[in-house]
């Protein structure tokens, strides 16, 4: 039997829970500066596995998979893995699911966690909207949906002999329980010199955004 030396105690740690808690602290600091001020932060503080109110249990109930499987999904989601990864994972855990059913469940999961992508246009994008007289629905802060973005790009390309236009200044997740957390993680990952917010350490220079042009988002967040 392993015993602690006099004056010491052994402490068990759930690494998955620790990573989610750190992400929650970042999100709360970014949102309002108080731990527990968001739904995600509140679940890490007050959620209980025994009551089914912790984050893993809530997500498991949303999609209809076991809590242990959800922990794997949560890790991938937190580190920026996309929907194709989540679909493959879900089908691996539930062999009876068709690809379409898996896609629908993953879309449901992302909709109630990450939210939906919204985009801020560059000046060139705003010029195209005005010049082409395109109807665009905007959020209160001026962001546009993916549907509107594709319409702008499609019309601009069609009317300029299929020239490719760069119209996006930035993108953000909006509208659900964990949107702010993902925005904060991605803003750190895509900064000029990504640093660990606690230790202040940088990632490897070959992986800096200036070198990889926005690729390897999952590696940056990790």
TrEMBL record:
Organism (species): Balaenoptera physalus (Fin whale)
Gene Ontology terms, MF aspect: 3'-5' exonuclease activity; DNA binding; DNA-directed DNA polymerase activity
Keyword vocabulary terms for this entry: DNA replication, DNA-binding, DNA-directed DNA polymerase, Magnesium, Mitochondrion, Mitochondrion nucleoid, Nucleotidyltransferase, Transferase
SUPFAM superfamilies hit by this protein: DNA/RNA polymerases
Signal peptide bounds: none
Entry EC number(s): 2.7.7.7
Subcellular location as annotated: Mitochondrion matrix, Mitochondrion nucleoid
Domain DNA-directed DNA polymerase family A palm stretches: 1-222
Cofactor(s) for this UniProt protein: Mg(2+)
Organism lineage string: Eukaryota, Metazoa, Chordata, Craniata, Vertebrata
A GO BP annotation: mitochondrial DNA replication
Family: Belongs to the DNA polymerase type-A family.
GO cellular component entries: gamma DNA polymerase complex; mitochondrial nucleoid
The name this protein goes by in its record: DNA polymerase subunit gamma-1
